Amino acid sequence: MKLRKWATVGATALAALVLAACGSSSTKDSKTTTVKVAWRSLGKGDSMYRVYSKAWISSFEKKHPDIKIELQPISATEGDYFSKLDLAMKSADTTPDIVNEDTFILPADAKAGYLTDLGPYVKNWSDWKNFTAALKKGSQGSDGKQYGIPGTTDARGLWTNLSVTKKAGLSSTWAPKNWDDILSAAKKIKKADSSSIPFAMGVSTTNGESVAMQTFEMLLYGTGETLYNESSKKWNINSQGILDSLNFVNSIYNKDKTGPSLSIAMNSNYGSTIFQDKFPKGQVGMALDGSWNTGNWTKDGVAPISNMTKKLAFNLMPTQNGTKPGYVTMAGGWTWAVPAKSKNRKAAITVLKAMNTKKLAVKRAVQEGTLTVRDDAAKDPEYLKKPFIKEASVALKNAYFRPKNDLYPKVSVAIQKMVEDVATAQKTPQQAAAKYATDVKGIVGAGNTETQK
C-alpha cells in the first residue's frame, strides 16, 4: 500500500490540522482505517522520522492491511504545541487518533476529558509488565487512571565542553560540587575566551515548560525545597530557596554576564542554537539541560560529534551547597495517549502497541539520547552502549518529578514569567518572587500555599 505524505503542521497551518479530518477517514465503502499520529516536530532532524520510518510504517501496514498510519508532526513552540493539540482534541472531527503528551500536561488534559483511559486496553497486554513501574504511574492522571503509555524519560545535568573548560584552566575531570563552583568556572571561561558562552540555561517564556523544569526546578530542588508539598498539598511561595534560585539566574545573566546574549536566550530556537550549533562548535562551556542531547551529536544526529565522550562531559547538577546526596535532577518524559474523541480507538490501540515494542524503545532511546521506559530495553546491549548512559542513570537515582496536580501547567507559566523577568532584568529576584507568590495564590488559592523552610 502506498504511504500517505507526511504532513508538517506549521504555526500558520493549524486550520489545516483542524479541518483536515484528523479523526476517522474510514467510510462505509472503505475497508481501511487511517490512524493519525501527532507529536511536536523538531524539524528535519526530528528523530521520530527515523524511529517511525517509512519502512516501519510499510511493514506495519503489510501486517495490518485494514489500517493505514499517517504521521502528522506539529511544528510549533512547546507552549503552542499544547494549545494546538488541546484545540484539535475538542472535536471528533479534528482530533488525531494518537497524540504525544508531556507527562506534566497529561493530568490536566485527562481532567479536561480529552484523553481515553487506557487501563482496560493495557491490563491484558503482555508487554505492559515490562514498562518501568514508576513511569507507568507517572503516565496516570490525578485520578489514578492510566491515560498514557510511557514513551521516553530523561535526566538533567550539566553538559560540559572540555575544549572550552580546558582553555579556562579546568581539568578534564572537573565536576562542580556546589553552585559557587559553577559560577566560578563560568567567570574563568569568560576571562579565557570572551567570545564563548560560559554558561547556558533556558530563560525565555517562548521555550515553555523547559524553563520551569530544566532551569528553575533544577535549581529549587537543589536548595532542599520543592515546588509542591505532597503531604500538605500546598504550593511553596515566598521561600529562601525560590529567592536563591532566582539569584543564581541573576548572577549568570546580569551580575556576572556569563550567559548567552538575550538575542539567543529569548529566541524560540534557543535549544537548537545552543545544542545543534554553538555547543558542537566549541562555543559554549557549560549548559544546563537534558541527557537526550546526545541524540543531536550521534553519527545520525543533526550535529554529529565524533568521539563525543572524549570531548564532552555530562556532570551531575550539584545541590546548592553540596548537601547530600550532592546532586539533583528533575525527571520527566513523554507519553503516547489516545484522545477521548478519536473515532478510531480500536485501530489506534493496535498502532500504539506496535509503536512501543522493546525493539523500538531501544531504537528511540538511542536515536533521541533519552532513557528507556522499559526494564527489558534497559538491559539491551545496544542501549548500554549509549554515550553517557552511566552518568544519566546515576542522576535518576536522586530524581524528582513534577507535581501530579492539574494546576501545575498554570503554575509553570508563572514560573517561566518569573525566570524571564529576572534574566532580562525587568525585575529583581525579590520583585519577581513576590509577583510569583501573588500569581500562584491567584491560581491555586491563598489557602493552598505555604512557605517551606
Automatic annotation (TrEMBL):
What start and end residues bound the annotated signal peptide?
1-20
Protein's UniProt keywords contain Cell inner membrane: no
- For the keyword Cell wall biogenesis/degradation, the answer is no
- Gene3D superfamilies associated with the record: Periplasmic binding protein-like II (3.40.190.10)
* Pfam families in UniProt: SBP_bac_1 (PF01547)
List the keywords (alphabetical): Signal
| Listed PROSITE patterns | PROKAR_LIPOPROTEIN
Q: Which PANTHER family match?
A: ARABINOSE-BINDING PROTEIN-RELATED, BLR3389 PROTEIN
In Swiss-Prot or TrEMBL terms, this protein is called: Extracellular solute-binding protein
Which taxonomic lineage is given here?
Bacteria, Bacillati, Bacillota, Bacilli, Lactobacillales
